[in-house]
Amino acid sequence: MRTCPKCDYSLVGLPERHGCPECGLDYGPDVVVLHQAKPYAVAMSIVFVLSVPLWIYTLDEWTDIGMVVFFAAMGIPALRTLLSKRRNRVVILHDGFLLVGWDGHEQQIRWTSVASCEVDRMGGGVKIKGRDGKKMDVLDYPYLGSMRRSEEFVRLAKARMTAAPACSASHDPTTID
User: pTM of the prediction?
Assistant: First the structure.
């Protein structure tokens, strides 16, 4: 691992298993990082660019301002994702997972609060249910950007969830699941 999956701090020269000096995240060979698929951003950008003539056409008529709002809402995030060096990523840890957005927004979820997770075949994302039975809708398709990454997350999550009860609050960071 060359950079910290949470804050992008350079880890060159540091031990294979350690805490990030910048943000404190424990990293090691058991930490898995799933980056948002770049093809998703490219596809969204192509859709946006191809829709620009339609967008300009609707500006002349002023009758369908909803079209303008729709194309702007689709295109701006797609271009931002394509041009941004940072992509959304999911960091799978021994005790949970961390969602890190392109803008640095973070959300951490512990395996002990997750009852189940499965690939949403209709939407392409991941359905995650909490122990309270409520849906934790945190991994939609754009976050990971491909069905393969959604399936990989579910596979890894299920393996980590079965090991989660063995992890205590004062776990040894040198233990590999």
Answer: 0.64
